[in-house]
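Example complex used in Figure S2.
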Amino acid sequence: MGYLLTRLDEKILSFKKASKKALVAYLVAGDPDLDSTLELMHGFVSAGVDILEIGVPFTDPIAEGPIIQAAHDRALKNNTSLNNIFQLVESFRDKDTDTPIILMGYMNTFLANAEALEEAHQSGTDAVLIVDVPGESNLEDLGIKNENLASISLIAPTTSEDRIGKICNSSSGFIYYVTLRGVTGSSHLNIQEAESNINHIRSQTSLPVFAGFGIKTPDDAFNLSKISDGIVIGSSLVQMIHEQSDQKEFKKIYNYLHDMAEAIIR
Amino acid sequence: MNNLTDLPNTDGFFGDYGGKFVPETLMHALKELDETYAKLKDNPEFIEEIDQDLVQFVGRPSPLYFAKRLTDYYSGPQIWLKREDLNHTGAHKINNTVGQILLAKAMGKKRIIAETGAGQHGVATATVAARLGLECHIYMGAADVKRQSLNVYRIKLLGAKVHAVDSGTATLKDALNEAMRDWVTNIEDTYYIIGSVTGPHPYPMIVRDFNAIVGRELRKQSMEQFMQYPDAIVACVGGGSNAMGIFYPFLEESYVDLIGVEAAGSGLMSGKHAAPLNDGEPGILHGAKSYLMQDKNGQVVDTHSISAGLDYPGVGPEHSNLKDSGRANYIAVDDDEVLSSFHLVTKLEGIMPALETAHAFAALEHVAKNYKSNQHVVINVSGRGDKDINTVATMDGISLD
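Predicted assembly (667 residues):
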């Protein structure tokens, strides 16, 4: 591709060299409000999170379970827009220029802000993960033009053999392996199936493979980190953020993340 | 222009619209469906089985009926009615479910899911599932469960489970979201019968093809009954399956005007409507790119229509392409016009249309004057109005208790 190594690539390379596994944490921007999101982002990093995945709220998030759906709704009640999120990332970069940031969301919100997205790397965004765009698509053909952003794709247990190679070829950063059939926050982890599928993906690409969907306990984290290059935690964090949103006392969440970080292989 | 009939292309696009914008977990199921349909659609045994069901179970062909008093009322063109309201279960929706349930059977799926707005698609799905003894789950917005309570009970009587969806606006759009989530979760054993020409490829094509029986019959009936093809065909458009079904076989006859009628709700200027082709922008919802009611940030906005079946912010991608190509025209009529038209048609013709269908009738106020007395305008009477009695009574300020 010939582009400069991004913050995300550098982070991933450093983990590879040290044989460490990455901890990725997801939260929805604007839930309960953008100031809290900024505080939580820094708090996550202090607790041991390596990469941040920021959920961009959408009215119709069809891949999300009830916990993350509700968070999207709350963020939209606060009128959280993608432009707000670019500003959030810029503010975060005042204190942290090291932690990669991925924006995860749905195509319609990205398309509606396609122009602003062309500048997004300048405010510190490193990658996009568009849940409802098939991984083999060329984002540029679809109207998302920014070669400075990595394009992270999902591969599911149901992804067919012939598409895995194509998806890997069209992706950058890492491959996000969906560990279960279902929406975010479901609980049907099948470690054996995940292991065999992740090994297969690895045979097709040099990109690292992270695992996510349904990871709740330090045991889940440990088991999945053994067979992948990193793990993603989402719904359980979003649930805890919501439970603490009245007091805005997030220490319990940081402790949880600390335990998760300790549990995975470092 | 004549290549409109060959769409979608292999990627599922009608011009700029359509495609497969879905979570990865669904991609394989869509491919499987695409392949199954490609294999079966020209298979003589499959065609024979559907044809037999359409005749013996649905009651096809539906009549083409001359609406004499309505014709006199407008003193313009001859007004003809394509009577989809006379189908088993009372609407065009059964044409699609009879076909899709056979695809489900061919794919060995044991569990059927569907979304519904007005409840007609829910009834049509529960009906075919009951007939094959398959487990059936219907997702319906909580607001629609209330305003279409008769259909909810019908669905339950047919042995299906109704899931009221509280999220978002609690209408058809949210029912679709929830049905898709169910499908993502139960992908191995579940077949999703989408009820309109919406959703990811290949659904817009499949649902259109199964509904195209309506337009094919009309070609034959119009020749037999008035010795030519219609000058205009008018159909209501929510997702747009009844319209696509009657339009599609006439796409190449460019002299046949195709008029789609959207729900203007409280009026296009009020913003409280469900008319994306009249007042929306292209966007992506429920797996396809199409005209969409959305704000500048790409968030889908709330819709409003007196009719639950049209209360949807999107529209089938093929309609978006027909709009851009100019092959079809899309107008919108508001709730008040629809209610007047409902009463007018009921009294003049003894036919009580569904509120969705009443949109097509209400369009006559706008378009009838464009046609002469030797011309023929066909209204697709997509469904009957029994389900809407409560809504109409409420609107008229009458208590049925």
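The mean pLDDT of chain B is 96. The domain at 31-53+93-207 of chain B is CATH 3.40.50.1100 (Rossmann fold).
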